[in-house]
Amino acid sequence: MPVFREMMRKKSALPEEECAEILKKELRGVLSVRGDDGYPYGMPLNHYYEEEDGCLYFHSGPAGHKIDAIRRCGKASFCVYDGGFRREGEWALNIRSVIVFGRIEIVEDRERVYEIARRLCRKFTDDEEYIEREVRAHGARTFMFRLVPEHMTGRIVHEE
Question: What is the pTM of this model?
Answer without folding.
Answer: 0.90
